[in-house]
Task: inverse folding
């Protein structure tokens, strides 16, 4: 086996092991909204203020999320995605009523 074939085989092996391992890790975590500290969110916000990890400017913004161990979000006073969306919609409606 030549060197290029060995490198390709090693790369395929590594990638396939990563693809198999990722779902197991994802199963043990859940998105928890409203618990991320400024600069420590894991991805984009519902509000559209940013589109990447580490860009939130405020602590505990309900539009931002962080991965936490599955089953711990409620104990941290966090929200599921559905709860966060509903709360944001309610806040928008309240703001529209006041204006």
Result:
């Amino acid at each position: 086996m030549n060197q290029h074939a060995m490198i390709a085989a090693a790369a395929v092996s590594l990638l396939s092991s990563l693809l198999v391992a990722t779902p197991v890790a994802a199963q043990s975590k859940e998105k928890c909204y409203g618990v991320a500290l400024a600069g420590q969110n894991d991805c984009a916000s519902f509000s559209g203020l940013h589109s990447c990890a580490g860009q939130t400017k405020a602590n505990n913004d309900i539009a931002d999320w962080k991965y936490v161990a599955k089953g711990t979000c409620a104990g941290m006073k966090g929200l599921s995605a559905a709860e966060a969306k509903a709360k944001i919609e309610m806040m928008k409606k309240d703001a529209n009523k006041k204006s």
In short: The chain has two helices and two strands. The CA atoms of residues 37 and 59 lie 4 Å apart.
